[in-house]
Amino acid sequence: MAAKQECDIIVIGAGSAAFEAAVAARQGGAGRVVMLEKAPEAEYGGNARYSGTGFRFVHDGAKEIRQFVPDTPDDLFATMQINPYTSEDFAADLQRMTGGRMDAALAKTLVAESNGAVHWMRESGIQWEPLREHALVDGKRYFERGIALHVAGGGIGQLQQWRGLAEKLGVEIRFESPVCGIIGDMRAVEGVRVAAREGSYDLHARGVIACSGGFQANPEMRARYLPGATDFVKVRGTRHDTGEVTRHLLELGARAAGHWQSGHMSPIDANSPDFETPQHEDGRGNTQSRYDYPFGISVNALGQRFFDEGEAQHSYTYAKTGRAVLAQPGARAYQIYDQKGLARLRYPHHVASFEEAGDIAELARKIGLEPAVLRDTVERFNAACPAAPAFDPRRLDGRATRGIEPPKSNWANPIDAPPYRAYPVTGGITFTFGGVQIDSHARVMNVADQPIRGLYASGDIVGLFFHNYPSFTGQTRNAVFSRLAGHHAARAN
Ligand SMILES: Cc1cc2nc3c(=O)[nH]c(=O)nc-3n(C[C@H](O)[C@H](O)[C@H](O)COP(=O)(O)OP(=O)(O)OC[C@H]3O[C@@H](n4cnc5c(N)ncnc54)[C@H](O)[C@@H]3O)c2cc1C
Hints:
By secondary structure, this protein is α/β, with parallel strands linked by helices. The protein has 13 helices and 24 strands.
């Protein structure tokens, strides 16, 4: 029989959502808080370990952002053009990206609490840096609305900072401690079963906060829920997010929510590892992301374009573009740039695989495409590019192709300045959209639409998004709902 132990609050996982919940619970007055992490210590941190840790949140513009980056030199900060991002902007982005399907109350909470949650992180001691993603024009750095900051040191930096805070508050972290069952029923939860190396045991608590991520690293669940080529998809983040806690919660009677047949899938280097794509050494972004497609064209293995590369800024299209690539023959495509496009690349590509050539036919031969077809695709694309309006990377410039399918709706410049480059890409899965339903206190709801007493959830385990995703909302969602979960779990009777 399993041994029995007790604490005040259990947090399942040791990714960013989990650390935020544990810290919030202690700050809210919880007693002994125990985090249970499946991974060994060297691999803890879940997807956050690989994350760029950019945050999207409501703010008033440059003056407010300055509070987060006081060490940025004045002359550099003066070049940063950071416009306000209002509650209406964020709400409209969520509504548009999710096809209006996102739970209205949760969307409202996410928007309303985003500013407070990110300031809470800052006030708790988390350090920040300006984002690498901006358009540099005439010496000025133009940031997209809502996204100007990431946590210093990227994914690992964020984890180390949260771990330091958690340990200072006396939070206990148990590695190699997979949760293999939930004690309770659809009315109330009293603890979890842990399959520790030295033997299984039951850990009882007043509150359980589930932060165990999505199911993207589980091929059986991908094949069961996701469409098409996702059975063999490369996993951008941790190998440990295999969805068993989600399954336990559903078996208990938690209500399923979010888009179960979808997930965040973005274009990555086709030669990426199967799991756990590495970050840059400075923590500023992931080495395998290929998000500059708005400044070139993308073709499939048949040499044909297959989506509108200029529909909007990549932050509004990248999470679905990986799915578009996965739907192509061989789940592969090539991003083609000329020198004008290459000059615009915002993500450092020095570690990328690519081929370069002085003309398009030679480039086609190098990447194994039919030269006549690729040349025809490029010539037809070039002929469809307009003379006006002028190219402007700071905004949707309306420089749209005419008379070709699919169109390129913005930034349509001819591919005519050699040498040309082709970057091979595939779609990589970041996280899944299906999960459990929570309410605005981060309480998990049951199939009878009642909160399950003592059970909370935050992070990718929550079913929230549909179809698409505005970049950098995952980390903000974690901070918002983990803070609420920790706060309410600490105060609940
Ligand atoms: C390459 C990459 C870049 C990204 N960049 C950004 C970005 O810039 N901005 C942004 O907002 N989002 C970004 N994301 C997404 C973001 O990182 C995730 O949404 C977020 O990390 C999810 O947090 P989480 O705590 O819910 O899950 P995770 O961080 O994945 O943590 C889940 C934890 O639970 C553990 N676990 C799983 N099962 C069990 C079990 N049975 N028992 C105990 N523990 C268990 C796992 O080991 C893991 O440590 C990125 C993701 C990736 C992969």
